[in-house]
Amino acid sequence: MNDDNELSTESVQEREPDHSTPIPAFSLKDMGYREPEEGIDQKLCCKNEYKEHIIRGMDRIISKQKKTDIEVYVRGHKFLCHLCVLKTCTEFAKNLHFPNSLIIAHEDVTPTGFQLAYEWMIHKDSTLKRKDIVELYLAAEYMNVPELLDHVWDLFNEKKLVNDAIAFQIFLECLPHRRSMLQDLMLSRVHRFFLMAVTTEEYLHLELENVSEMLAHSNMCVNSELEIYYSAVRWLHHDWSQRKTHAPQIMAVVHFHLLPNQCLNSIREQLPELHNIPEVQSLINDELARERTRQAASLRQWVYDWKIPHHHSSVCSKWQCLDLAGFDRYLELIIATGPNYSQCLRYLRSGYTMPCCRSALLRKS
Q1: Which among 70, 112, 167, 326 would be 20 to 30 A from 364, CA to CA?
Q2: Domain of 92?
């Protein structure tokens, strides 16, 4: 029996595995395995509800400004923002590498302008008040937000939103920032508000360049070129001692060739302190000496106010040459009428002549 046990033990010991590898091991590549040339290119599917869930979640994070990753400072005001939003919506941010904060120190960008621009980026239903439109425009322009710029420019062009009075206000707001294209657009929209604008302090405080631009614009609605002339005089007289040197330049925008000779003689005698300036004298004398052909309709946007006589033809019995005192009384009437005054003015059709003036012209001919 013991002999049998010894044989069994001996057999087990003989069968103990040899830990050495009996054949060499090869990698898949060594064995010739290759990926198919076309590979396995399958579209990964996902339930639409899950994708929408992710998008809604991201939208909540952005719109509620959670987990923001950059602080933007504008004139000491701090805004918590997402860098990805700025890089996606603005050309300004695309090629900039920010740390954790950014300071926008440009003089045209205000906290209100930046806040409105960023709210437009992250909200579908952001709103805008009229008084903030220029600040938003300047911020969008500085940060170069093409879609927002297009939208704001469309608002500027919307006549129902920007009437003649608002156009003058926006023109004033643009002046410190020297946006000539926007200024010109707004001046072209002032129209019948022009004389109301002339009554304001803001008009009297305009710089020479801006008042000249305004008076020279063909879309300023007037009953007569004399109103342009006296509007220039009003600006000069507001600070005559400082502004008299500008008289030749501002008088140069008046279309004196649209005035009859009796008016030219009258205004020359009425304001000697102005017309004694040699350059201004030359403007009047040259017109008096020149044989003129009037094409008034193409030079101004003419309007008709039935309450005044100076819009009649100079040959009409109802015509009166407007003087400075009469112009001041007219401005007082405009002020008393209030903001709705401009709506009382009627546009004159090209070539239109009032019946009384037409009869007088026929009699003269």
Answers
A1: 326
A2: 56-142
